[in-house]
Amino acid sequence: MNTRLVWTLAVLISAAMPGMAADSLDGRTILLESGSQTSLHVPLSLPFDGTVADNLAIRVQEGKTGKEFPGTVRNGEFVFLPEGAMPNTKHTYTVKVNDDKHPPRVRIEDNGKLEVFIDDELFTAYYHSNDYKKPFLWPLLSEGGATITRDWPVGEKELSEDHPHHKSFWSAYGDVNGVDCWAEGENSGYQVSGEVTHGSGDAYGWIHAKNSWVDKEKKPILAEEREYRFYPTPASSRLFDVTVTFTATEGDVLFKDTKEGGIVALRMRDCLNEKNGGTITLDGGRVGGAACWGKASPWCDYSGTIEGVGVRGVTVFDNPSNLRYPTCWHVRDYGLLGANCFGLSYFTEKDSNRLNGDYTLKKGETLTFKYRILVHSGGAADAKIEDRFADYAKPPKVSWGEGK
Fold first, then answer.
1. What was the pLDDT predicted at 161?
2. CB–CB of 74/201 below 8 Å?
3. pTM for this structure?
4. Quick one: which of 232, 243, 253, 266 has the fewest CB in 10 Å?
5. Alpha-carbon Rg of the chain, whole angstroms?
6. Structure confidence by residue, pLDDT tens digits, 181-228
7. What is the predicted pLDDT for the residue at 10?
8. SS3 177
9. Each residue of 128-152: pLDDT tens digit?
10. Is the pLDDT of residue 153 over 90?
11. Rounded mean pLDDT, 261-290
12. For the chain, percent of residues with pLDDT exceeding 90
C-alpha cells in the first residue's frame, strides 16, 4: 500500500474517532513537586500532542483532597491551574475528561474589541483597530470591578491629561531604527494590527496578534507578535502572561538606547500614582520613585488606595529568560510603569560606569520577551509578591505519571 494512501486512511480513521485523543488524556496521572515557596494558582504545563473536542471538559483532580482544577489543551501543550501547594510537598493528580456542557471559565468575545471575561466578569479588552496608533488593553479591572489603569484618553476623563500615548496597558519602544514607536505625535511610527486570533478555555483564554511596526510613511521596520494568556484566578489575584516576539524581517533592527519605552507598559489611574499616595516597590525593599526609577529588579509593583474600594495594585514580573534580566524599570511618580532593558545610558547616567543599552537584532533573527502580570488586592506585602515571583521563575515541577 503506498504511503499517501496509508496517510489518507489514518486521517480518515482519526476524524471518525474524535474521542480517541481525549481517551488518551482521560485518566492520566500528573506528579507535582513544589519548591521552597508557598505556591498559589500557578499555571503549569506538560507536553501533550493531541486534541480534545470542544464539547468535552478537562478537570485535574488532586488525589488527597479530591479538589478539581481546570485544564486546557492547545498547540501541543496541556495547561492546568492547581489551587496551590505548600513548600516542599508532593502531589498526585488525575486528569478527567467528560461531556460537561458549560461556558468556558475564560471567555473571549469579539465585540469590535476582544473582551475578556473571567467567570463571567469582565477583566479587560484588547483594542486592535488601526484607528489607533497601537493596540492596547483597557481597562484592567481589579477585585470589585475597580479599574487600576487610567481611563483617559480612552474612557472617562481623569484629572491628568498628559502623555496621551499612555493608553492603559501596551507594548512600545521609542527608538527602533530611528523611528519613535512609543509616542503618538505627527512624526511617530505606528503599530499596524494584522491577523488577530483568540480562543476561550477553562485553564486559560488567549489572544494572539500579529503586528507590523512601521514608520510615519507606513514603511515596515519589523514584525511583532504578541500573545496574552488570561487565567481564571480569584478576583483578588488576577494573572495573565504576555509574550512579545520581534522579528527582523526587513533588515537589521537597532533598538537604540532611550528611556522612552516599555516592552510591557501601563499607566496607573490617578488615585493610585505615587503623587496621590501610591507606592512603587522593587525587590530588596526598595520603595518610591526616586529609589526605583531606572533600577534593575525581577519585578516592579505599583499599589495604592481607591476610595470606597480599598488597596489595589499591579505587579509586572520579568522572566529570567529575557534579555538583560533583571530588567530596568521606567517607573514614575505620576503613574507610568514600563519594563525597559534598553535605556541603560539614562538609567546609569550618574554612575561611574555608565552603560549603553543599544541592541541590534540581525536580519532574520527573533527576540522574545515574556512577562507575568498580577492584578492584586492589598499592597505588595499583602500579595506576597516574592512568593508569586518564585511561582513564575521557579514553578513547581510537574511530570506525567507512568500510567492511567
1. 84
2. yes
3. 0.93
4. 243
5. 22
6. 999 999 999 999 999 999 999 999 999 999 999 999 999 999 999 999
7. 35
8. coil
9. 999 999 999 999 999 999 999 999 8
10. no
11. 97
12. 87
**Bridge partners (DSSP) listed for residue 224:** 211, 246
In this structure, are residues 362 and 250 in contact, taking their beta carbons and an 8 Å threshold?
no
State whether the Cα torsion 142-146-149-151 is positive or negative.
Answer: positive
Answer whether residue 9 shows pLDDT above 50: no
Closest alpha carbon to 394 in 345, 328, 321: 321
Q: Enter the C-alpha cell of residue 98.
A: 467528560
Which is nearest to 198 in space by CA: 107, 287, 261, 280?
Answer: 107
Q: Left, alpha or beta for 64 (phi > 0: left; psi -120 to 50: alpha)?
A: alpha
Are 47 and 76 in contact by the 8 Å Cβ rule? The answer is: yes
The owner of cell 522572566 is 319
Do the Cβ atoms of 32 and 396 come closer than 8 Å? yes
Are the C-beta atoms of residues 318 and 330 closer than 8 Å to each other?
no
In this structure, are residues 90 and 20 in contact, taking their beta carbons and an 8 Å threshold?
no
The percent of residues in the chain predicted with pLDDT above 70, rounded, is 94
Buried b (16+ CB within 10 A) or exposed e, 280-305: bbbbeeeeebeebbbbbbbbbbbbbb
d(CA 79, CA 380): 27
Give every strand in the sheet of 205-214, ordered side by side: 190-199, 205-214, 220-230, 237-247, 366-377, 310-318, 299-306, 279-282
> Sign of torsion, CA 13 14 15 20?
positive
φ/ψ region of 292 (left if φ > 0, alpha if ψ in -120 to 50, else beta) reads: alpha
| pLDDT tens digit sequence for 31-64 | 999 999 999 999 999 999 988 888 899 999 999 9
Cα three-residue angle 170-172-177, rounded to 5 degrees: 170
Query: Using alpha carbons only, what angle is made at residue 136 by residues 142 and 332, rounded to the nearest 5 degrees?
Result: 70
The string of DSSP codes covering 314-347 is EEEEEPTTSTTSSPEEEE-TTSEEEEESS-HHHH
Look at residue 246 in the predicted model and tell me its pLDDT.
Answer: 98
